[in-house]
Amino acid sequence: MAYTFEQFCQDAHDALAADPGRGGRERIRDLLETLLQNEEFVTETCGPQAEIGVHQIYRDPDYDFVVLAHINDAPRQSPPHDHGSSWAIYGQATEYTDMSEYKRLDGGAGAGEAKIEKLKTYRLTPGHAGLYDVGAIHAIDYPAGARFVRVTGTDLATVERLKFDAKAGKAEVIQSVGAG
Q1: pLDDT for 7-54, tens place per residue?
Q2: Nearest CA to 94 among 140, 48, 28, 31?
Q3: DSSP string across the chain
Q4: How many CB atoms lie under 10 A from the CB of residue 22?
Q5: What's the predicted TM-score (pTM) here?
Q6: Sign (positive/negative) of CA torsion 139, 145, 148, 152?
Q7: 180 to 6, 53, 69, 112: CA distances (angstroms)
Q8: For residues 115 and 107, is the Cβ–Cβ distance under 8 A?
């Protein structure tokens, strides 16, 4: 029997109950990879019939983590950004996402002057997930038709996040639009 979305949500809840820190988040990353092996879930949630956009498919009532389905029709490359006081786990469902990780070099923590350096770039392929912990700076680049499931520590529209312009040497606050 395939690992279900309902099992994933309960197991993710239990993982944070046992360890609200990085260990619990790593456990959720592992669980998401297991869920993405469920072809029925992937087809129902991220298949060709899925409506384009970002859709909240679960929000935990106790730990406030959110599960989102990202159904993309067009390619996209984001600027380097963080998730502020939250964390995020990206789990690839279709196509791929090239992930780049960065380090802030100037010692700053907020908007304003900022110097960043790219540390590495790698590809998330279907069935694989990556954890971007609190304050981690990363950028995403995916082709048309890429679809992924993202778990965040909270609704990102409720936290201050930054995007970085490496050429200009600046960080600015992201203006968020929540997924409903």
Answers
A1: 999 999 999 999 999 999 999 999 999 999 999 999 999 999 999 999
A2: 48
A3: -PPPHHHHHHHHHHHHHH-SSHHHHHHHHHHHHHHTT-HHHHHHHHSTTSPSEEEEEEE-TTT--EEEEEE-SS-EEPPSB--TT--EEEEEEES-EEEEEEEE-S---SSEE--EEEEEEEEE-TT-EEEE-TT-EEEEEE-TT-EEEEEESS-GGGS--EEEETTTTEEEE-------
A4: 12
A5: 0.93
A6: positive
A7: 19, 10, 11, 31
A8: no
Euclidean distance between CA atoms 116 and 166, whole angstroms:
6
Contact present, 89 and 129 (Cβ < 8 Å): yes
Order across the sheet with 162-165: list the strands: 112-113, 170-173, 162-165
* Integer CA distances (angstroms), 25 to 31, 106, 152, in order: 10, 28, 10
Tokens of 128: 């694989």
Span 120-140, pLDDT tens digits: 999 999 999 999 999 999 999
